[in-house]
Predict the 3D structure of the following.
Amino acid sequence: MALIVHKYGGTSMGSTERIKNVALRVAKWHDAGHQIVVVPSAMSGETNRLLGLAKEITAQPDPRELDMLASTGEQVSVALLALALQAIGKQAVSYAGWQVAIKTDSAHTKARIGSIDDVKVKADLDAGRIVIITGFQGVDGEGNITTLGRGGSDTSAVAVAAALKAAECLIYTDVDGVYTTDPRVVTDARRLRTVTFEEMLEMASLGSKVLQIRSVEFAGNYRMPTRVLSSLTDPLMPLEEEANSGTLISFEEDTHMEQATITGIAFSRDEAKITVMSVPDKPGIAFQILGPIAEANIEVDMIIQNQSVEGKTDFTFTVPRGEYDKALRVMDAGVKDLIGNGKIVGDTKVSKVSVVGVGMRSHVGIASQMFRTLSEEGINILMISTSEIKISVLIDEKYMELAVRALHKAFGLDQA
Ligand code: ADP
Ligand code: ASP
Ligand code: MG
């Protein structure tokens, strides 16, 4: 008998029929003698619908109220799943994040989990109940409902698994694992049987939305065995077969010794680039430009500063496209004094494409192969950033899919 956490995404919970299938699958695991905690997302489209309602009322909704609103999607799905389990004879109980409690900081719409109380959940499990906990939400120190950022149910699930010291966290979704790239963009993408934790962390942070990045951080920090697998298979398929399907995030350093240099290609469509022109080239400039952005909790990704000419330089960085206007707003006051007659220019039609693989550590020439492939397609590179196991380029958004396909082929990721 083991304690196992299941997470079901929006598509998996997308209709009452699907929820009944989830109940059958969960019941199968419970019947096999396991203690099961389930963390579902809102039904597909629901979070977008709720956020859309807020936008119909105001262009700049108050983040606290947005969380109050968006968190309701998950409350619907936990209750429906509890009912579906009860309807097939299982004891099940659902909880909202605050009832557990999943404690977070107060950064509304992108809160971070600080602690999770396991007492109530453990007592229910010991009493033979299946426990269902809302994904995506928590509660801050003042009792306000918070949410963890889009895709945050993954993080809820892995954090709950870590807090309960579960044997495994199974992330059920609408694909049957982690692929070499998004299978919706490249049809010959291949499923990976395993992916190292480091690679998954890079892929998630570079835009592969199959797992939210913080869920991967939790998996790494707590060494939680985490598997991504399909919820769209027959819910009554043999448990052994299901338990070994999908993609396991591995913590073994040598998993990829025999494999290709590049494991996958990630991309993020929604990037924006900001250039501050004619900045005096002196100490403290980067801090003066980026400090207010960090304070506003906006994540800055790529950064370049040009060679200075006559004591002046251009300073360019990228932010998520959704935060572009806010970044310009918070920067405005301080930076204007700094640049005098200089200008701030922006581009919101840029995307980032990255190649990822631990094999890069021991192979040279990956960057040149990447740049050659892009040049053969006539794609101009606007910015480059690298780490030990990834190379990212910023390009015009209209070439993003072309770049992903060309790189997938050039690195032989379509070959088994
Ligand atoms: P859920 O609602 O289950 O959380 P998401 O839509 O958040 O599902 O994530 C699953 C989707 O992630 C897939 O449908 C796929 O289009 C996308 N995706 C992006 N990159 C990858 C990848 N490398 N491997 C698998 N899926 C990916
Ligand atoms: N429902 C939330 C979202 O759509 C959380 C999640 O699905 O993981 O982002
Ligand atoms: Mg998701």
